[in-house]
Design goal:
- It is a single chain.
- This protein has 118 residues and is mostly helical.
- It is built from five helices and no strands.
- It has helices at residues 10-25, 30-41, 45-58, 76-89, 93-106.
- Helix 1 (10-25) packs across helix 2, helix 2 crosses helix 3 and helix 4 (76-89) packs across helix 5 (93-106).
- It is elongated.
- The N and C termini lie far apart (44 Å).
């Protein structure tokens, strides 16, 4: 939990949706599953119902992949362009860079020169 009685973080959200999916998979009715989840996780009945509905419509949730800080040096003009594009798209800089690098790497680009050595 990210804060006392606050919003559940990504990992906690997944845990709660998956608990709801298990209850539903065992044949428990949605209303009863919501009551069990509210008691188990100390959340409101309304929020527990949302977890159950998400599990009922989407099945178990996938855990978010762990992230790490990765610092790179960019030319100032390129960094400014990245910031502007993220702002225009309503995205974060991290999300924009993740998308761009994922697409680039999926295309399998390789240098003809081989790996650079320092």
């Amino acid at each position: 939990m990210s804060a006392a009685r606050g919003r559940a973080d990504g990992g906690e959200y997944v845990r709660r949706v998956n608990a709801a999916a298990e209850l539903l998979g065992a044949g428990m009715a949605m209303a009863e599953a919501a009551r069990v989840l509210a008691g188990r996780f100390g959340c409101s009945a309304r929020q527990a119902r949302r977890y159950v509905e998400r599990a009922a419509h989407g099945g178990p949730a996938a855990a978010p992949e762990a992230t790490t800080v990765f610092t790179v040096r960019l030319p100032a003009t390129l960094a400014a362009r990245v910031r502007a594009r993220a702002r225009e798209s309503g995205s974060t800089i991290s999300a924009l860079v993740v998308q761009a690098l994922t697409e680039f790497l999926a295309r399998g680009h390789r240098s003809d020169r081989g790996p650079r050595r320092r």
